[in-house]
Design brief:
The protein is mainly alpha-helical and about 160 residues long. Helices cover about 75% and strands about 0% of the residues.
């Protein structure tokens, strides 16, 4: 049996990410360049300024989150329906759904920052993606377990 994640853990994870983002910003912008004998970034930004910037613009985050929620839901449900229509075994159909619904947001973050700049809305959207993706996909794990009964065909196993 899979233990149910507590909403408190998801909230603590989000708070931890804000703190970690600030600490990593300080590490990469100030500490690491000094250790490597490189020029520092030239930015005069305190750790608390970084943390505050992560907590700012909640309306923008919500505006980004809503289409992402719809996207994850549609990709997951559409892929699961396709697996069912194609008479896939449950294990393969669920693997398909999470592959389709999950994205490589790390690449999206890097590309959006390189293309549009670190302060762009595109960079914010790329950074918000994983914060939305993880709790949504964890929730969809439980939905997957509930719909398993509709896949009456026996699993064929791997391959």
């Amino acid at each position: 049996m899979i233990a149910k994640p507590l909403p408190v853990l998801v909230a603590l994870n989000s708070l931890f990410q804000v703190v970690a983002f600030a600490a990593l910003g300080w590490l990469y912008l100030w500490l690491l360049p000094g250790w490597l004998g490189l020029e520092q970034s030239g930015l005069d930004v305190a750790v608390w300024d970084i943390a505050y910037s992560v907590l700012s613009a909640p309306q923008d985050v919500a505006r980004i989150a809503i289409p992402l929620l719809v996207y994850f839901g549609l990709m997951w449900l559409g892929s699961l329906a396709l697996g069912w229509i194609l008479r896939m075994p449950y294990s393969r159909a669920v693997a398909l759904t999470f592959t389709a619904a999950g994205n490589n947001f790390e690449l999206a973050i890097a590309v959006s920052i390189a293309t549009f700049g670190v302060t762009s809305g595109q960079a914010l959207a790329g950074a918000v993606g994983p914060l939305i993706e993880v709790p949504v996909l964890v929730g969809l794990v439980y939905v997957s377990l509930r719909v398993q009964r509709y896949f009456t065909r026996a699993d064929a196993g791997p391959g």
